[in-house]
Design a protein that fits this description.
The complex is a heterodimer of chains A (119) and B (291). With 119 residues, chain A is of the alpha/beta class. In chain A, 43% of the residues lie in helices and 21% in strands. Helices cover 67% and strands 10% of the residues of chain B. The chains are: A alpha/beta (119), B alpha/beta (291).
């Protein structure tokens, strides 16, 4: 997902990798959900990785809205992992007491792909 | 610019500088006598500090020589960036030698008295002398303010350096293996320190791509609700980054306290000793421990 609202979906093995960049806006989240769900329906991918390394700032609201995308993808039977969440983002969300219990994470994209092998 | 700021602050004009230069021409022949008198004053006024700052004759000679040239420079009444920089250096040196500002300022005050009374030039009309003395005193005060200012800033820098060093010292994060980090927490975990630790921990997790992080709390003095919450936060933040934090060294007493206080530790992984924590961590990192 980029600043211009375009979503890049990269197929890696039997999973799909989506780099997320820049500030989290409603348009971006909508585009992300639309493209991801269409892809899941078309291809039937079971594993999804969001590469969060390009996100420097995210508040609790952004994170809650990201959750909706993740939940909707899981409803279609996909497992979604967040990879490469930045230290500043992690510290910020925790200090804001954001609900993070839903998030499945991996340190690196590589590790995320590894974890998705079984699904 | 700093030199113009100080000039404005102390209301020093070109005319003042002219006055000081003219006055300086008359009094600077007495420079050696002045230095001698001033050091005699310092010896008396500083007491035991004098011996600390000037432990041997070589140090004393060197100090006197630089003192002498500093005053000759003063009488040229240049107040430009270069001169200001040289006075800032004086402030730095005073801070490094930990010369007390009160000793410095007392010396300056005495110097001012020596120049304007004891070594006052003959044959100056009263009004002329008063005007010159006013200019001289203002410039001496301005110089004193600059030196103390620099001294103060330098001291602050030293303090903040030390407190940074202390923070670093209090978070000795060790890499145990690929993807496994460990941090023993010792002492008191207040919220400031907890935030420092969390920041450093998350940075390290990002930098080393760690997947397991052991927080050993056997050295934490008191575990109460606040401390438990800090630990839970650290664990959560690490998990967001895809790194599992394991709190090890939970003693029987700490376990009891946590239950008594009704703290919900949630999904925080804890172990009683470091050995168990290591086993968990290595399994997470995909490393088989040697039997």
């Amino acid at each position: 997902m980029n600043g211009d609202g375009r979503v890049v979906l990269q197929r890696v093995g039997n999973a799909v990798l989506i780099p997320v960049h820049g500030p989290i806006t409603d348009e971006l989240l909508q585009a992300l959900r639309r493209e991801l769900l269409a892809h899941l329906q078309r291809v039937g991918t079971r594993g999804v990785v969001f590469d969060m390394s390009g996100v420097e700032v995210m508040d609790a609201d952004d994170f809650a809205r990201l959750r909706q995308v993740v939940v909707s993808a899981s409803l279609m039977g996909a497992t979604v992992l967040l990879a490469e969440v930045q230290p500043g983002v992690a510290a910020g969300l925790v200090l804001l007491d954001a609900d993070i219990s839903w998030a499945r994470t991996a340190r690196t994209v590589e590790r995320a792909m590894e974890a998705l092998k079984g699904v | 610019m700093k030199h113009t700021e100080f000039r404005q602050l102390f209301n020093v004009t070109d005319a003042d500088q002219e006055q000081v230069r003219a006055y300086g021409k008359r009094v600077s022949p007495y420079i050696d006598a002045f230095v001698e008198r001033l050091y005699a004053f310092m010896r008396g006024a500083l007491g035991e500090h004098f011996a600390v700052h000037f432990p041997d004759t070589r140090t004393l000679d060197r100090a006197q020589a630089s003192f002498r040239s500093a005053w000759l420079e003063f009488w040229q009444a240049r107040w430009d960036a270069e001169y200001v920089a040289s006075r800032e250096h004086v402030g730095d040196v005073h801070a490094q030698l930990q010369i007390e500002p009160r000793h410095y300022l007392a010396t300056m005050a005495h110097a001012s008295k020596l120049w304007t009374e004891d070594f006052a030039p003959e044959g100056l009309a009263d009004t002329e002398r008063r005007a010159a003395v006013a200019s001289v005193q203002r410039m001496i005060a301005m110089e004193g303010a600059l030196v103390v200012d620099t001294y103060n800033r330098r001291t602050q820098e030293i303090i903040s350096q030390q407190s940074r060093a202390l923070v670093d010292m209090s978070t000795p994060i060790a890499g145990l293996s690929d993807g496994v980090l460990m941090l023993p927490i010792v002492g008191i975990l207040d919220s400031r320190r907890a935030q420092d630790i969390m920041r450093r921990m998350l940075e390290k997790v990002g930098e080393k791509q760690a997947v397991a992080f052991i927080l050993d709390i056997s050295g934490v003095a008191v575990v109460d609700t606040a401390v438990a919450n800090h630990l839970i936060r650290m664990t959560k933040a690490a998990r967001l980054m895809g790194c599992e934090a394991i709190v090890s060294g939970v003693s029987a007493q700490v376990a009891e306290t946590i239950v008594e206080l009704g703290i919900d530790v949630g999904e925080m992984k804890t172990t009683g000793n470091l050995k168990d924590a290591l086993r968990v961590a290595f399994r997470l990192a995909g490393i088989e421990p040697k039997p």
